[in-house]
Structures
1.
Amino acid sequence: MNLERAQAPVAFLPDWLSLHAERRPGRVALRSDHRAITYAELYAAARSMAARAFALGVRPGDRVGVMCHQGLMHALCLHALMLLRAVLVPLNWRLQPSELAYQLEDCGASFVLCDESAAPLASQVAGMVSRSVQTVVLSERAWEAEASHAEPASIASVDVSLPSVHAIVYTSGTTGRPKGAMITYQNHWYSAMASALQFGLDPDEHWLVPMPLFHVGGMGVLMRSLIYGTTAVVHDRFDAERVDRALASGEITLVSLVPTMLARILKLRRGPYPPRLRAILLGGAGCPRPVLERALELGLPVAQSYGLTETNTQVATIDLADALRKMGSSGRPLANTRIAVQGPDGPTTEPGVEGEILVQGPTVFAGYYNRKEETERALAGGWLHTGDIGRFDEEGFLYVLDRRADLIVSGGENVYPAEIESQMLALPGVVDAGVVGKPDDEWGQVPVAFVVLEPGKVLTDEMARALREELRARLAHYKVPAEIRQVDALPRTASGKLMRYEMRKWVMQG
Amino acid sequence: MNLERAQAPVAFLPDWLSLHAERRPGRVALRSDHRAITYAELYAAARSMAARAFALGVRPGDRVGVMCHQGLMHALCLHALMLLRAVLVPLNWRLQPSELAYQLEDCGASFVLCDESAAPLASQVAGMVSRSVQTVVLSERAWEAEASHAEPASIASVDVSLPSVHAIVYTSGTTGRPKGAMITYQNHWYSAMASALQFGLDPDEHWLVPMPLFHVGGMGVLMRSLIYGTTAVVHDRFDAERVDRALASGEITLVSLVPTMLARILKLRRGPYPPRLRAILLGGAGCPRPVLERALELGLPVAQSYGLTETNTQVATIDLADALRKMGSSGRPLANTRIAVQGPDGPTTEPGVEGEILVQGPTVFAGYYNRKEETERALAGGWLHTGDIGRFDEEGFLYVLDRRADLIVSGGENVYPAEIESQMLALPGVVDAGVVGKPDDEWGQVPVAFVVLEPGKVLTDEMARALREELRARLAHYKVPAEIRQVDALPRTASGKLMRYEMRKWVMQG
């Protein structure tokens, strides 16, 4: 009798959406200002959309790009693709067409679902891909479930396969070459349970997400609400007053924000929110002390977190009181997650040891799509190698010393210097380029570039403007350096590696 | 690129106890009237006890009986065995020594851990087993973590292996031959998550369990509190006044009861409990209508449930309003669970179809220990065959028509007629015997026996007394028939199967 392996590990769960539609059909699944969709309605609309996509040729395992300005339409696409067991590739419409085309090329997508307002960009991007990519424009009628397409048998009551890929989310990483992070269903299940274990679970949860849904942060709110069978409240664009009103209304129980958003909301606030709001979850970047202090003054339940795309959002969290007591700490690991740093003798949580931050647990992603080598490197030895440097203190609190060595977080978006640098090196006259972040009151950080020009050239205001214009055509606007400064040489190690901390000193010196 | 199996299904989670001891050392893990144990203390004491058991010879995978009158000591044993990766066999000290000896014999246990007050029974039972069984008596000093025994390396920070057997819980089943139901760690994990998804999760949960801890119901409260990192409040004996006081104090957030207990508590109640009490979970048997009506009058958050040892507690639940509207229903499936009935064309949830109730999901047990055939029968076709008969209504509510065909639930304990019958058939003068339940104001049900005696014999009061005396020596007291009646013949089908519903009619006719 093998008591060690008496059962196979759980690999399937009954499909969440169909079960909720059966058990609590009238419960609101998704809400925005102009619309509230119940679980029964969502299931019907998602089945209808899945049948339509199937009729067009979308099959299980196909990668399908989704580009929607409207959060609710994005959510509908997400659910339809799940029913079809196709893989969601959420597209960040803030990126440049060439960046998006690269992602579609890389993941081999043949379809892009988009809403009407994103259709022009989606078509443009589709036209740039070497393969034929079909753009499917979804109108408001997508919400009216129609039996116009025959539904394949596989759609009704399909099981959730936990080890399967749910989404491929592109992340630039330190190399500057975007990679598709594969997020599985079990990543979502365990992330949802980790949140519940950390912040509790209200059976009538209303989770507000005024962030884009194409990052793991926004996607996580949709998936958690689905798994819980509760309500996701979606704001398509961040509007501080609107978020403040929603939080003050007493309906919202949880909200996901980036520090920049919280700072703006705090400018409007004079007192605490109703107690039904259990946590303000801050992701993406460290929060400035004055913001935390103001939040404490107002009695807001802020929880800061540390996480990456590769861990499907947060893996460590710290509440407000601890955050002020332990300024700069990212807190302690969430349930079921182990965090360590790479010490001289292997992974350790010994206080004071500095090293690369390692993460182990069921929310760690499945690897990069079609990048065997990078995946093996990232997951070597059974730990996720984050690229971030950190250490623990005596109470087991994690401090991230250098976030992904050189990551810039601007208004909640990750900006990888290497990506900007490689674009700058392609510009006429540029011999070498280095990018670092500069503190910014509004965005948290903005990128600043140092360039070495061809001998004899001088960086005039006009040339800087021209360079930035060139970059604007190739990169999302928040990646374009706020400043470009000329230097004689960049600080490099003997092996040629950029010493960004030296450049950061230059920035601080003004 | 295999997107269908991009990851192995999760098989390991970081050990819950050591993580909580690290993350929230001062939080109370276990509380009784005379003692409060923090997570740090519990971890230290469990390590110490594990080291002692290891020194005595207990090894990973060994089955170890636990017999404790004190709930906290039972819990400490449970945690120590988990750290050792030994298998818990919780022993119901209400059973007769011969019944308990059978269980130890069947599972091949060589050790029994017990507290001082259970020591005499434990020793007696150990002496009845053919193999040598060592009894280890634990005193109050077990709480003082001592480094008197060297700790094997395997104890510190061991992972939880989800597919491994955590416990073997004996259940008599319909055949009358007790079988060891293997409950895995993943059964516990998914049961804990199903509860959280159904009733929400308070990060400061205080779950009161005034029920014995040797059934899955009580064990479930210990395991859920562990998984959540919250507090289990243990009452060693059910005392209605004490439970009422605890619920009224505003500390308790959840409580697990059987209907008999609720009925007694309601006699003391004049108003609602504080709102911090989110749910009164009723398991084990249907609840009489007057009890439900009184609970509704008082505004108590009662939730009735349907479950078995083989599903590691509840798989369906119904709240009070629905319970009164749909009298006799067990409600709808919990999250991640599928329930169906065996229809003519296979499993179905079609309204009105009557058949054996089938359950599918991650809380379904791993099978019966060393009972390959019975396991295959129970889990045939990927569904648990419960032996209960049921049907669904139009709204998807489950009605259990015949609970395990003939199960008697007396004061929260399952009583299987077949077990009593087989003992009665061994008594002198008894030719045939049939047992059914009779409604009882105090216990919910009590067993009543019908006997066919040798020709010419008449059942006198004296003989009935003698028969009951004989049974008392072989069976737990609550299994001994409250009445024995003589009949000429028992109602049997052509194939010889007892038609218990006929006997139930006899009972109702008085």
2.
Amino acid sequence: MDVINRYVTIKSHVDGAPQESDFELKATPLALSLDPGSNEVIVKNLYVSIDPYQINRMKSYSSSQKNSDFAVGIIPGEAIDTYGVGKVVASGNPEFDKGDIVAGLLNWGEYTVIKASGMLNKLNHMGFPLSYHVGILGFSGLTAYAGFFEVCKPKKGDKVFVSAASGSVGNLVGQFAKLFGCYVVGCAGSKEKVALLKEKLGFDDAFNYREETDLKSTLKRYFPNGIDIYFDNVGGEMQEAVIDNMNINGKVAVCGVISEYTDNEKRAAPRMIDVVYKRIKIQGFLAGDYLNNFADFLSTTCDHLRTGKIQPLEDISDGVESAPSAFISLFRGQNIGKKIVKIAEE
Amino acid sequence: MDVINRYVTIKSHVDGAPQESDFELKATPLALSLDPGSNEVIVKNLYVSIDPYQINRMKSYSSSQKNSDFAVGIIPGEAIDTYGVGKVVASGNPEFDKGDIVAGLLNWGEYTVIKASGMLNKLNHMGFPLSYHVGILGFSGLTAYAGFFEVCKPKKGDKVFVSAASGSVGNLVGQFAKLFGCYVVGCAGSKEKVALLKEKLGFDDAFNYREETDLKSTLKRYFPNGIDIYFDNVGGEMQEAVIDNMNINGKVAVCGVISEYTDNEKRAAPRMIDVVYKRIKIQGFLAGDYLNNFADFLSTTCDHLRTGKIQPLEDISDGVESAPSAFISLFRGQNIGKKIVKIAEE
């Protein structure tokens, strides 16, 4: 059977904030059958992850492309690979059968033809919605879990600040930190998000950074006894203000730097004299370095989900054609929680 | 017996680069005898340490004053305490006898009256010149040793860069790193210093940063395969250029930030996107947190000194009246190695 496979590409490299005009929806015929002897697998994509870091892959050059295996450059005109969940519709690979639900490296499209081994795993959904496996039970969840527990190495009672706290990773860091026994404050970019953090996700407090004019004073108000741990998703001025308000032996886990992603000249300039005298550690990390923690993360998070101690926060768009606007919305602060595109019904 | 005790004070807080006019040499009579029952000790100061971080103590406010026990504010008009070596001339404390050589918290003066316990220890000079115990065998040495081995956690073959490499700490970091089996490049501010690093101290290479216009390119030239460890004594643009040239899992030990010490607006603005994708760790530290490593440090360093594997680098001024100019010279890059004031002959 032949289908028309629609998928999203970039027309050329994207070096500023992404716009609808940077993307193109392509459509090509695809035979849903494989030659005898082929080792390929064809997956019908169901849910795919939409992540801010992909902007670094779309640039003509970024540090990401040189220094990480998973964030190499995206070639204009070609499909944009991403983590996702799908269903096998044809398989020449003995490890996979037609009908298997799988997770792995899919793309912003309706179908993925997978040639190489190791890019795909059978998914045990464990009774959870498939979308969870793209977000809270996928890399966003692992990023939050490993970043908080392995990089920040928290102690009970630590005072924790999370930026972009209603984002895919930030909301989970806050929830993990609360369950662990920390005092947690988040910041986000709207009243609605702030209310959600406090009322639904159990943050001790939260504020809308867009309403604040002096971030140092703001943080002093929310942390009169200082910050022990900062989970940094944004970089820039917020990081500077945090360092100013940090306690001795404070830790900054740098997960993302959205302020730099679309403005190459934007920088965080933390006061290094504070870094010295407060013995602060600023540590960048990638979830991919913590795959050994995946089993532990998954088991813990599934338990919390089953007992209702942790809330999934998903923001799902419909249809492959919504991928560009879903992606663009991340840079405009329009998403609430994990941004996912639902490509098709199971 | 009464003597005239001359000691240096600041006239008022010093908030920029220090000048001769900021200091005053005072002279007051001091009785070299103690009341019966007194627990005090009077020390004749012999060698005292002159350190850049003291500028932070002289300011009207600095992070140092709030966040560390040893770098609290200096009160204008009062003696400036510092680490030094001296000889007991009177003692009401049963732990010390007249004639004992001691090390501890003395001051920029000819005599120190020590009231509190715990500020002084008897010194076993182990056959080394007393001045060594103020520098290479004192806190400068411990800073280099703990900063390099405990904070940087080097591996043999790591490519190490040291700024202010002819300074009190930097020259030792380079020597420790070479002995450990690293590739070491240092930067300094004159041809003479660069020659000394390469010819006397065994650095693999060195350059004069004042002759360079583009530090990123300079570092790329000296480290074509990237930097694994940066021992940062200066902050500012150099730190930015290092982050740009750093390898995956690179480590920055922030020991000092001389660029910020006399210019509160000067900042390092490293590219955080590099910090994330290269998983870089930037860690501030203070030697005082590594007192448990002192015995190990001392034994190792003494061995290296005895076998000639490590060279002491001292820059000694004569007389208490030279303390202000000795201190000021640190901010003008005029010292070569550990700056010490010799107050008196033993």
